[in-house]
Specification:
- It is a single chain.
- The protein folds into three domains: 104 residues, Rossmann fold (3-Layer(aba) Sandwich); 78 residues, NadA-like (Rossmann fold, 3-Layer(aba) Sandwich), CATH 3.40.50; 85 residues, 3-Layer(aba) Sandwich (Rossmann fold).
- Helix content is 44%, strand content 17%.
- It has 15 helices and 13 strands.
- Strand 5, helix 6 and strand 6 form a beta-alpha-beta unit.
- Helix 3 runs parallel beside helix 4.
- The N and C termini lie far apart (43 Å).
- The structure holds 1,3-dihydroxyacetonephosphate and iron/sulfur cluster.
- Iron/sulfur cluster binds next to helix 13.
């Protein structure tokens, strides 16, 4: 089968088997084309609940598939490629955070959604990059322990200066590779372009950007802007999707190192095998863990 035939077969089978395919915006073009919905982490979690289908295939990383299962425990949820994990989500475990909480008992634990389900059981509220500022502002508590991404935490703390923040040293190894030097070089090379970055980038890169936002926020900004050139400071797939959607505009990547091998590990063949029933991994979570972890996801949806 060629790629087009494979796509047609996936589309036929997903209808026949009542499957909803969700794809994170970092997924490859050919996967986005067969997905029922593509978006950022927050939009995917909202869609997870809304989708009427009995089965969901997540094309993204493990914590995203786990979030779908938490929100829709009655659905059968698959991660299209079982090796796709987010290294940031694995950086901190429950025991570590329980220890930190003992040290700072009057701090509310705000967890980036890029965390394991197990860790979410000891957190108060989840946030995504698109909802973090809004949710932290709405929380009645003043003392915030933001985990695990210190770059996103730093960005949120600057937008919500009225609160006290404690940050730990975690973060996305891919976005952390971009340097202020890359941003200055991009300014010189593309003087008419706007620089749009994800808040997982380091504070010195964020400070040099024209716009900071989640993957979907970056895409919406570029689509709606009157400007014609953009430097994209997040995973390279975003620049690629934008160049298809806005052929009259030019998109450059802030750094050639902005490639997430985990997001890129899912292929169209993985999606096909999962639809057929010979691939992917069904997400199975322990009942007690699900009940505890869901509380902070529900709070995120309520405040987001
Ligand atoms: P979004 O919240 O923008 O979807 O980002 C998720 C992610 O993993 C970024 O690296
Ligand atoms: Fe995780 Fe970073 Fe990859 Fe996003 S880009 S999935 S935060 S490693």
């Amino acid at each position: 089968m060629n790629m087009y035939e494979l796509q047609q077969e996936i589309i036929r089978l997903k209808k026949e088997k009542d499957i909803c395919i969700l794809a994170h915006s970092y997924q490859a073009r050919e996967i986005v084309e067969v997905a029922d919905f593509t978006g950022d982490s927050f939009q995917l979690s909202v869609m997870a609940e809304k989708a009427p289908n009995k089965n969901v295939i997540m094309c993204g990383v493990r914590f995203m598939a786990e979030t779908v299962k938490l929100l829709s425990p009655e659905k059968t949820v698959y991660l299209a490629n079982p090796i796709a994990g987010c290294p940031m989500a694995e950086q901190m475990d429950k025991e570590l955070i329980e220890g930190v909480k003992e040290k700072y008992p009057d701090y509310t634990v705000v967890a980036y959604i890029n965390t394991t389900t197990d860790l979410k059981t000891v957190c108060d509220v989840c946030v995504t990059s698109s909802s973090a500022v809004k949710i932290v502002k709405k929380l009645p508590q003043k003392n915030i322990l933001f985990i695990p991404d210190c770059n996103l935490g730093d960005y949120v703390s600057k937008q919500v200066p009225e609160k006290n923040f404690k940050l730990l040293s975690g973060g996305c190894p891919i976005h952390a590779r971009v340097s202020a030097r890359d941003a200055k070089k991009a300014r010189e090379m593309y003087p008419n372009a706007e620089i749009l970055v994800h808040p997982e980038c380091t504070p010195d890169v964020v400070a040099l950007a024209d716009f900071v936002g989640s993957t979907s926020a970056i895409m919406n900004y570029a689509k709606q802007s009157d400007k014609k050139e953009f430097v994209i400071g997040t995973e390279i797939s975003i620049a690629e999707h934008l160049s298809y959607e806005c052929p009259d505009k030019r998109f450059y990547t802030l750094s050639k190192n902005l490639i997430c091998p985990n997001m890129k590990s899912t292929t169209l063949v993985d999606v096909y095998n999962t639809v057929v029933g010979t691939g992917g991994e069904e997400i199975v979570l322990d009942e007690d863990t699900m009940v505890k972890a869901r509380k902070c996801i529900d709070k995120m949806i309520e405040l987001g």
